[in-house]
Design goal:
alpha/beta; 17 helices; 4 iron, 4 sulfur cluster binding; rSAM_sf; globular; Aldolase_TIM; Flavodoxin/NO_synth; four-stranded parallel beta sheet; eight-stranded mixed beta sheet
């Protein structure tokens, strides 16, 4: 009895202090992310130091030292913790009238920033600011600032590592040139990424030059424009000075506008898949295997996404963006190639032990398409044409969206089942888990749920439970459900997809199936209009359904696919005037799929194949 009392006391203490425990875990995860980025920065710094050492350059005097700054931009444009004090000191020195503007005169420097261009408002802001502050204190650039991009779709060289290697090669060439006296340090007033100090004899450097962002046109004081002299300027001259500055700024904006238009046109023509990205995604899909075996094809018309979720199984190798800006294949091409690739993957299972020949042959004829393999399918500009094309081929459609494109949801034509990923229930937890690109992500999220409520066909909230991240927000989840009024709520434990520098998740964040069941039962108590309908233990997943699908004492959560095809054909032939609802194509849920059934979601007609010499897994999920 004493032992049980002690054990009970410990459990109660843990429960009472769960928020402190959660905070400690969250802090640990954040610390882990910081350490990972610091490791990458140190690896870059070490590689650069080794490369410089290997050149055997003559030792410079202290007055001619060169400082290289490798700095990353963190959340909301802030520097990493290790650089926070230095950045604050540098900013104060650059803006403090008591500090002379020639404070760092004689210092030569180069800046390489690390960031992600998907976060447009804060992309490499720390590196840019540091470059500006150093220049304001009269330090001299030896080369234009360069920026490494974690966004593989926009990275000039396919990855941030490749960006660094390209910059390093140019830096080493520049360093050798400076030592030989072939080139003077940059004056610090370069514009448009071109250095005015380039000599005619060094034109070959241009062929290796990185494509960099234009330098900001700094609005400096009259003292700075006069080269740091103490000359006095008449009040009458201030108008002329400001006029020149405004004219120069207008000219820069016009030039940037033209350049931006050119870059935008180039981006439209750009391929969504780079060779490096194709290789990375191919490895991931091969590792995952054909996740929709039998007659379900998993595909997507868009690899791009507006989120960078912590549990993304692509480990953030797919492109990200808030709008479509890539080359675009036509729906017919996408469907033809998707079916061919799907059939090729199915054929690879021919002769594999446990695979039934009849089912293998049947699987070659695609009957269902899950538009959820990667990215945000609803971003594809011709998504409605693509959906119609699938229906014309007798293929049902299951589309998943991340709730960041409300207008696209409203314009979407009927699909068999429309999912919205509800990965968190509060603004802050959604920011931490989905890491969205849109600044107004929360309003877009809520508007997407409202748009879902307007749909007449089957709608689903998809909740992915991540232990220590989003499992303690039941009341907030219930509030969100009242907004979107989904037909179904699918609750699933997160799947651990291996270690990655892009995510801090571990197996400790994967809930047990019993924990998922407990979460759903507690959520059901808050939602009197919903009941727990189905369970699939192997997928660590449960399904809640609206009471309107509980007809004559039995659940009707399954789909009559033949009836759906009839309804969607009538809808298209009528030009959209013939509407239909989810209740018109339901089917009876088989007993083995119901929650609480002995089979726990396993079809008794399917027998799991156990490999020889392999221990039977009885652990469950």
């Amino acid at each position: 009895m004493d032992t049980w009392s002690y054990f009970h006391t410990c459990l109660v203490s843990i429960w009472l202090h769960r928020f402190y425990i959660y905070s400690a875990v969250a802090f640990g995860i954040i610390l882990w992310i910081v350490i990972q980025l610091i490791i990458k920065l140190r690896r870059f710094a070490k590689a650069l130091a080794e490369a410089v050492t290997s050149l055997n350059l003559p030792v410079e005097t202290s007055s001619r030292n060169i400082c290289v700054f490798l700095v990353a931009t963190y959340t909301d444009g802030q520097p990493p913790e290790s650089a926070a004090w230095f950045c604050k000191w540098l900013e104060e020195a650059a803006n403090d009238f008591r500090v002379g503007k020639s404070f760092l005169q004689g210092l030569r420097y180069a800046v390489f920033g690390l960031g992600n261009s998907a976060y447009v408002d804060h992309y490499n802001t720390v590196g840019r600011r540091m470059d500006r502050w150093l220049w304001m204190l009269s330090a001299s650039r030896i080369m234009t600032r360069a920026e490494g991009d974690c966004n593989v779709a926009q990275s000039k060289h396919g990855s941030i590592e490749a960006d660094f290697e390209a910059w390093k090669a140019k830096f080493l060439t520049q360093l050798q040139a400076l030592c030989k006296g072939e080139k003077k340090p940059c004056s610090g007033k370069c514009k448009k990424g071109k250095c005015k100090s380039l000599g005619k004899g060094r034109e070959e450097l241009r062929s290796h030059e990185l494509v960099m962002e234009p330098e900001e046109l700094f609005e400096t004081s009259s003292e700075e424009e006069a080269g740091g002299t103490d000359s006095v300027i008449d009040v009458e001259d201030l108008g002329n000075i400001m006029g020149h500055m405004k004219k120069a700024k207008r000219e820069q904006e016009l030039q940037e506008g033209a350049a931006g238009a050119g870059r935008k046109e180039e981006a439209v023509r750009r391929e969504m898949i780079t060779p490096a990205l194709r290789e990375a995604l191919t490895k991931q899909v091969d590792a995952a295997g054909p996740r929709g075996l039998h007659r379900c094809m998993e595909a997507t018309p868009s690899l791009a996404c507006a989120n960078k979720c912590v549990f993304c199984w692509r480990h953030h190798t797919n492109p990200v963006g808030t709008e479509w800006r890539w080359k675009m294949d036509q729906p017919e091409v996408i469907l033809q190639e998707a079916i061919e690739k799907h059939q090729n993957m199915i054929r690879e299972f021919k002769g594999v032990s446990g695979v039934k020949a009849a089912r293998l042959e049947e699987a070659l004829a695609v009957k269902h398409c899950a538009l959820s393999l990667v990215g945000e399918p609803i971003m594809y500009p011709h998504i409605n044409r693509f959906v119609r094309l699938l229906h014309q081929h007798g293929i049902s459609t299951f589309l998943v969206t991340n709730a960041q494109f409300p207008e696209e949801i409203r314009r979407l034509e009927p699909v068999t089942q429309l999912y919205v990923s509800v990965d968190a229930s509060t603004k802050e937890s959604l920011r931490r888990i989905d890491r969205p690109l849109f600044k107004d992500f929360w309003q877009r999220f809520l508007d997407s749920l409202k748009a879902l409520a307007e749909k007449q066909q089957r709608t689903v909230y998809r909740l992915t439970l991540v232990k220590s991240w989003n499992v303690d927000e039941l009341k907030a989840y219930a509030d969100l459900i009242s907004i979107g009024k989904p037909d179904f709520i699918e609750v699933k434990g997160v799947t651990y997809c291996g270690e990655s520098s892009a995510s801090s998740l571990t197996m400790a964040n994967v809930p047990w199936h019993g924990e998922v069941v407990s979460f759903v039962q507690e959520l059901a108590r808050l939602l009197p209009e919903y009941g727990i309908a189905c369970e699939h233990e192997h997928s660590n997943c449960l399904l809640m359904a609206h009471s309107k699908f509980h007809v004559d004492g039995e659940w009707r959560t399954w789909i009559d696919y033949g009836r759906f095809q009839e309804l969607v054909r009538e809808h298209e032939q009528s030009g959209g005037s013939r509407t239909f609802t989810a209740a018109e194509y339901t089917a009876r849920t088989p007993p083995w799929a119901l929650f609480g059934a002995r089979e726990r979601g396993f079809d008794p007609l399917d027998v799991r194949f156990q490999r020889k010499n392999k221990a039977r897994d009885v652990s469950g999920c």
